[in-house]
Each structure stands twice: as C-alpha cells, then as structure tokens.
Amino acid sequence: MLKQVVSSVALAAVLSTGLSVVLTQDLDAAVVNRKVHFQGQLGKVIVNPYKVMPLTAVIDRNGKNPKDIEVTVVGKPNGGQDIKYKVSEGALLNHDGVPVFGLYDDYINTVKVTYKLKGKKVNDTYKIRTNPFTGRIVDGKMEIKPKVVTKKVAPGFENRLYMVTLMGTADNKEFAWATKHKTHGAGEWLAPAEMYMVDTKGEIRWFVDTEQFYDKDGRRIDDTGRIMSFHQTDNGDIIFAQAQKYYRYSMMGEKAYERKLPRGYVDLSHEALPIDNGHVLLRVAKKNYHIPGTKDIATTIRDVVIEVDGAGRIVEEWDFNKIMGINTFRKDLIIGLDARAVCLNVDMNAEHIEVKKEMPYGDIASTGTGRNWAHINSISYDKDSDAIIVSMRHQGIVKVGRDKKVDWILAPNVGWSKDMAAKVLTPVDAKGKKLECEDAACENTTFDWSFTQHTAWLSPRGKNIGNIKTLSVFDNGDGRGLEQPAIKTDKYSRGVEYVIDEKKMTVKQTWEFGKEKGWDWYSPVTSSTKFETDTGTYSILFGTAKMLTKNHTEGIIVEVDPKTNEILYHQVLSTDKKPGIFYRGHVVRPNTLFAY
User: Which terminus of the chain, N or C, has less C-beta within 10 A?
Assistant: First the structure.
C-alpha cells in the first residue's frame, strides 16, 4: 500500500512539472505487482521478431522444452489454405521459441501448435495480429497489393506456395544520376523489388520489408539498386543480391550476413547462386577495366562471374571479355533485337538501330567490352564437371570450365569466330539424326534455339552425370531467328528443355511449353523455368506478359506436366503500375524451413 502511495505521489509530481512520461507494459515487479497471462502453456508471442519479415512470429518457449512440435497457421474461413510444418529441436533452440511462418497480413491469425511437454501432449491455440502488407508506393500506383487470380489447382497442388520478386519503378534517382561518380548498372535502378509469397487462394502469406535494405535517395551508394535474384539454400535460407551487396537471411528474417562486393567489382544483379561447397557465384561487372585494343578504361557491363567463399573472399573469376575474345563484337542478335531500351525493343515502329564499334561506353545494347554485349542473367553450376553454364542474353548459352575454356555454345551458328564456331552444338532429332538447319532456323522440326533467354539451369529431370546434361530454359523469344517479325504479335515465349551430349557435341529439344499461348503470354524480359522434383512438373513464371500492351503487366505462374503438357496449376498476378516486371518465381516448402 505504501509503494502505491509513493508511486502515485511521484507520478503527480512529474505531471505537475509538465515533463513527458512514457509508460511501458513491462514495469518492474517491485513497482507494479501483476501476473502475466500467456495464450498457451509457453511464453509470449513476438511478431516480426527480426524486423524485416513482418508475417512471421516467435512464440517464446519461456524456459520450457517442448518436443515433437507441429505448427498450423489456420486458413481463413470458407476455404482458406492451412500452412503446416514441423519444428526441429535445432529450430526451437535457434529461436528460443516456436517459429511461426505464413501468417496473413492485416489479420487476426489463428495458429495451432501441438507438442509434448514433460511427456504429455499439449494443444495450444494462439491469436496473432499482424500489420498490413507494405507495398512500394510510387507516383501513379494506386493499389497496395498485387491482384492475384487462381485459375486452376489440380489435386495434390492445394498447398503450393510461390515466392516472387516484383521489380518496381524508381521514384527518385536524381542524386544518383547527378553525381560525378554515379552508380552503375543495377545501382542506377534505384527502386527495390517487392518480395512476397502467395498461396493457392491468392493470399499473401509472407513478404520482405525491402525498404530496410536500400537508400532511395542514392546517397549511400552501397545501399542502392534493386533485389532481383534469390535462391534457397538446403536449410531454407534465401540468398539474394542488390547492386553492391549480397545477403543471406532465413525466411524468418534472421540475418546470416550482409556483404559488400569485393573491391574492384560493381553492379551485382540477376544472379547470386549458392553452390554445394558453401560458396556463392555472383554475376558482377569489373570497374576500371582496360578495354582490349585501346588505351581506354571503363566499367564492364554484366559480363563477369566471381565465386566467393564462406568468408566473402574471391576464389575464382570468369572474365567473359577474355573468355569470348573477339566474340564480344558478335552483333547478330543485338541487331535483331533492335533494342530501344537497355535490352529490348519498346518501339516496334522505330527504324532499324545501328551497332558500331565507335558506340560510347555504358549500359547500352551494343558490342564490345564496356557495353551491354553479353547481359549474363543466370548461372548454373555443373558439379559433375566443376564448370558453370551462363545465360548470355545477347549471345547464347555457354558452358565454361575453371580453365576458362568454352566447352560448348547453345545458339545458332551465326557470327562466331572460327574457334568458337567449333564449340556450337549441333541440333539433332530424337534419334540423334542431324537436323536441317541454316542460319538461325531449322526445317521440318519443332526444334528451336532460345533467344534472349533467362534461367538456363541444369534440370534435375535429367541425371546430369558424365557427358549427358539436361538443361531447362525460359526462352523469352525476342529477336527470334535473329530478327523482328513482320507482325509483332507473332512473338511468343516458352519454357524449353534441351538434352546435350557433350561428347558428340549435339543438342536435342525434349520438351517445350508456351508457344501455343502466343502474344498473350509473351514475356520479353525476366521470367524463369524450373523442374520441381516433388511433383515432376516444370514451374514456369511468364514474368512480363502484356508488358508491351496497354494492359497491366501480368506474372503468369503455371506448373506443367512435361509428359502431357497439362497445366496442373495456374495463377495470374498483376499490378496497376507499368511496367511492373515480375522477375522470378520459386516454390516454397515450409517443411524444409525448420528441419535443421
């Protein structure tokens, strides 16, 4: 009673002075004697515990040792999608509590947690409130969330979760462009991506607060650019890149690392690929580069790959300016693109663009070191031969070993130097018979090369052992046949699979999907194709459908059975702000996130 009187007198004295007072809930027990009531038999709920992924939470274990933990984030009434997963002892110890993943935004979520406590089974139910989804707001954008329409969910696909990146529009880059030492390449794309995960009902169930990672005014050069690539490691962590830095985070938001590029490298975008030895392959550019055959010094454009170890130190560099030599001036596809932007034609009525050796250095679609001659946009690692496979958007798909020698090229045999022409794969039919091909077209066959492709990745649909490799590619299709079609709406994009015999130096096309969808699904840039081993399907993101029309850009997600080409899953995302470029799609499996 005395303590209460003293506290009241003290509070009155403070208030009479006009001083500000901040009251907190966690008052010292000696001042306020109160009993804390938790929702379950464990401790308190901490929402967004690591600051950057708002639709996560941790249920503090409060010194207790629950076993055999299973979490269910209950779907909304009337058919919402449950998210269910088990939690290992390691995950419990790591978070000092039970990790909760897959909450709805701006909602009072129901979360069921079952576990054993001192040998007895416990069933707890929690109510967890979340904040609204934080979308990027720029001039002209009126919708916070993307529109998501689910068109088909076949049996067995009801619990799918898809993570996507959406590349938005820069809302302020005056400082970055005005400074004498301006940022470069992806650093000038001063607009962070949105990264989020949707369920089969079209609800957002996870997102990254990307505002935490960048400086929109461009004054901190290391914090400029936008997030594009992301990959998951074996334990579920995601690795992603943003212009001058690359990151590793758990899907709960814990930071494993945030690293700057090693000195001498800039413009990290498109790919940050973790490989089996714990290293990461990064697609970068080289600054202060001596341009071959000249006295000029410039920054290269999307044409260098480095391998960094677990401490962020370089262990290997693939400089494609040196690897490809005179072929940096190969211009057949670049002319065919008739590019009016960094890498695509946005004006089909414009006259033909010229490509000259005297073009200025910089991020322009042209030839030669210091220009956008290669545009490497994906990397795949062939563990069996310890080599990399790169998608060079403006040249083709190329495999290179650690000896920096080209093993093969998947592209039309047009415009290559004599030594590289010998490395170009020969198209064959299903029986291994050579196809009738001339220039950039083959007759009496469904075979076609990929043009301006993305995600040229080794596909686990094949064994990829010895001389036989299976490659899945998103074939964007701009510049198909090394030219523009007479009618622009004849363009199409597709997912495609190739089987390569490295000993015979042949390639055969074993699957394709998308050609029949034509202009409606045509995606001139970005997008992805990936084989899903659990369902035996190819998941494909047509990331920029309708981008070159007056309609809103769409990101079309499908899962296709490659044996029948039946669509087993079909979902369409769209945004009201043009261009609204969806970059990649990825299937997320909750049971892999907390099994360590």
Answer: N
